[in-house]
């Protein structure tokens, strides 16, 4: 049974007086005793004028409230930070942990018996799952849903794989200023999250895979009535959780559920960023994300979902093809189908209820996959002692085994200063290296890992090169890009010792990335690295620098993890 407004009445010693005061203040908003004596569902409001991906949040909140009230509980909406990819400086990743901390503490601080967390843009669902994994009450999630696609000269456009593709065409001189301006009006056709299998879609789908939101909650379009009905049903379930209790996120997310998430991630062509977020979530649960297991899963589970950037289509087609439940049905043999969900029953029950969509081609089968390989491979080697990832499903086949001369950029700024210079000494066979762009380096591990093709090579028609960094990459990007090298250069990882002119060998089949220098020279260069600088003197920047962990640990703060 719930505690409602009686929860956490400790501030004045006299509990009766604390409740009396609490009621007196909240009655200023016009609540009756009848309303206040009910179980309470908190609803985190992440609406912000800076966050178009959350543009439907007010409508979703209304529907959640309706679902809560129809089921006899009291909804209480409270604000939290909202993070949008394009409006968060220095990076959205830099702020993810702040949002996770704030959300966790506001859930803890305020009286509520269950909580609905509404998120969507890349870092928001991960931050909210991290927060809920550290909370004591049941939480149910409501993704905002993918945006609509636009049209230009007979082609469909979807943010943001097409943002990159069209900008690439502009850079290469294939389209002019007037046309790119027109495209700019059409790329983001509605509110909602990016409509390809980028980080937002990946994390929304994984939220569903992990049983944390209702079936189809990962994929229903932001602007569809189905999304609003899902919101009402989410509110109804939250009221039930508030009244009767239920499993917390920490109880739901077992290692077997994380493995289910890995299976889906590999099968759907998910974002590399999901690896960092899953690692952070695991850290909150007291275990480490098993990178070797992720790689093994990728060797068993091929790419099944035909969505950009690994394939052709957009989230609406994935949804219409049956979405996550249909995908899970296809990979059923790889799953722990006994995994429990926040809405009762198991993932196996969800799969049993799937009605096949006749003729759909978006979700392929295990016997006839879109590509015979899984999405992500985990690389090791002398350059990355704690691992790195490559989205092999979005990489060029001919570059998967490649040795080239390193062309090193020391920072994101150095990269932007020199990459387009006609004097840059670079050929298509070289390996572009970006460092000091990891969790500490930039700071905030920007999505700079998708280094642009140097302009002079782009003009010659070069579309892809091997690129390596300690940065992240947008889930919407395409190319032979090795990411999350850890430890990062700014933490004196081996990436710091690479010099322009050294050679680097990538061998995806052997799961290796190595700097080809003599071991004694390697050690000598490592020993000569200067100490890691102290970092900023004050504020969140200082906290961040002192406590952020490496990519393989999810770039969470060390003090937020739970000891194994
Ligand atoms: Fe928000 Fe892509 S910018 S999901
Ligand atoms: Mg993104």
UniProtKB/TrEMBL annotation:
<dbReference type="GO" id="GO:0046872">
    <property type="term" value="F:metal ion binding"/>
</dbReference>
<dbReference type="GO" id="GO:0004160">
    <property type="term" value="F:dihydroxy-acid dehydratase activity"/>
</dbReference>
<protein>
    <submittedName>
        <fullName>Dihydroxy-acid dehydratase</fullName>
        <ecNumber>4.2.1.9</ecNumber>
    </submittedName>
</protein>
<dbReference type="InterPro" id="IPR042096">
    <property type="entry name" value="Dihydro-acid_dehy_C"/>
</dbReference>
<comment type="similarity">
    <text>Belongs to the IlvD/Edd family.</text>
</comment>
<dbReference type="InterPro" id="IPR037237">
    <property type="entry name" value="IlvD/EDD_N"/>
</dbReference>
<dbReference type="InterPro" id="IPR020558">
    <property type="entry name" value="DiOHA_6PGluconate_deHydtase_CS"/>
</dbReference>
<dbReference type="InterPro" id="IPR052352">
    <property type="entry name" value="Sugar_Degrad_Dehydratases"/>
</dbReference>
<keyword id="KW-0479">Metal-binding</keyword>
<keyword id="KW-0456">Lyase</keyword>
<feature type="domain" description="Dihydroxy-acid/6-phosphogluconate dehydratase C-terminal">
    <location>
        <begin position="362"/>
        <end position="555"/>
    </location>
</feature>
<dbReference type="Pfam" id="PF24877">
    <property type="entry name" value="ILV_EDD_C"/>
</dbReference>
<keyword id="KW-0408">Iron</keyword>
<dbReference type="InterPro" id="IPR056740">
    <property type="entry name" value="ILV_EDD_C"/>
</dbReference>
<feature type="domain" description="Dihydroxy-acid/6-phosphogluconate dehydratase N-terminal">
    <location>
        <begin position="38"/>
        <end position="348"/>
    </location>
</feature>
<keyword id="KW-0411">Iron-sulfur</keyword>
<dbReference type="InterPro" id="IPR000581">
    <property type="entry name" value="ILV_EDD_N"/>
</dbReference>
<dbReference type="Pfam" id="PF00920">
    <property type="entry name" value="ILVD_EDD_N"/>
</dbReference>
<dbReference type="GO" id="GO:0051536">
    <property type="term" value="F:iron-sulfur cluster binding"/>
</dbReference>
């Amino acid at each position: 049974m719930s505690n409602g407004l009686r929860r956490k009445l400790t501030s004045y010693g006299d509990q009766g007086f604390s409740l009396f005061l609490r009621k007196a203040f909240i009655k200023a908003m016009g609540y009756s005793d009848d309303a206040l004596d009910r179980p309470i569902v908190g609803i985190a409001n992440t609406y912000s004028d800076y966050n178009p991906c959350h543009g439907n949040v007010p409508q979703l909140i209304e529907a959640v409230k309706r679902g809560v009230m129809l089921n006899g509980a009291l909804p209480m909406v409270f604000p939290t930070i909202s993070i949008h990819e394009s409006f968060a400086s220095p990076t959205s990743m830099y702020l993810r942990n702040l949002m996770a901390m704030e959300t966790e503490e506001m859930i803890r601080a305020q009286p509520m018996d269950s909580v609905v967390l509404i998120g969507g843009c890349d870092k928001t669902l991960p931050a909210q799952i991290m927060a809920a994994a550290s909370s004591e009450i049941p939480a149910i999630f409501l993704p905002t849903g993918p945006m609509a696609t636009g049209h230009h000269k007979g082609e469909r456009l979807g943010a943001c794989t097409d943002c990159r593709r069209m900008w690439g065409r502009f850079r290469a001189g294939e389209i002019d200023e007037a046309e790119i301006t027109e495209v700019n009006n059409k790329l983001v056709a509605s509110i909602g999250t990016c409509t390809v299998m980028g980080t937002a879609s990946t994390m929304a789908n994984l939220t569903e895979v992990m049983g944390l939101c209702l079936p189809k909650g990962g994929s229903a379009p932001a602007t569809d009535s189905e999304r609003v009905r899902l919101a009402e049903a989410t509110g109804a379930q939250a009221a039930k959780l508030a009244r009767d209790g239920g499993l917390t996120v920490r109880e739901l997310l077992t290692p077997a559920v994380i493995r289910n998430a890995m299976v889906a991630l590999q099968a759907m062509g998910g974002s590399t960023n999901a690896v960092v977020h899953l690692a952070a979530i695991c850290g909150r649960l007291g275990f480490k994300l098993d990178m070797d297991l992720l790689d093994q899963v990728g060797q068993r589970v091929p790419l099944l979902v035909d969505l950009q950037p690994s394939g052709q289509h957009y989230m609406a087609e994935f949804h219409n093809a049956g979405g996550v439940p249909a995908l899970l049905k296809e990979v059923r043999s790889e799953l722990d189908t006994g995994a429990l969900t926040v809405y009762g029953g198991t993932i196996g029950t969800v799969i049993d209820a799937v009605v096949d969509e006749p003729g759909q081609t978006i979700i392929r089968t295990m016997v006839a996959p879109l590509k015979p390989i899984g999405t992500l491979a985990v690389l090791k080697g002398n350059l990355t002692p704690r691992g790195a990832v490559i989205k092999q499903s979005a990489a060029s086949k001919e570059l998967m085994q490649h040795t080239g001369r390193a062309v090193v950029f020391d920072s994101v700024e150095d990269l932007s200063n020199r990459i387009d210079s006609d004097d840059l000494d670079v050929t298509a066979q070289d390996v572009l290296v970006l460092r000091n762009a990891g969790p500490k380096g930039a700071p905030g591990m920007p999505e700079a890992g998708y280094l642009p093709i140097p302009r002079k090579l782009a003009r010659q028609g070069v579309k892809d090169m091997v690129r390596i960094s300690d940065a992240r990459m947008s889930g919407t990007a395409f190319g032979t890009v090795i990411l999350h090298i850890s430890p990062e250069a700014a933490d004196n990882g081996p990436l710091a010792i690479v010099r322009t002119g050294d050679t680097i060998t990538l061998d995806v089949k052997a799961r290796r990335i190595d700097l080809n220098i003599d071991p004694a020279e390697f050690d000598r260069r490592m020993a000569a690295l200067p100490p890691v600088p102290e970092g900023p003197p004050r504020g969140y920047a200082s906290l961040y620098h002192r406590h952020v962990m490496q990519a393989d640990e999810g770039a969470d703060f060390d003090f937020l993890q739970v000891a194994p």
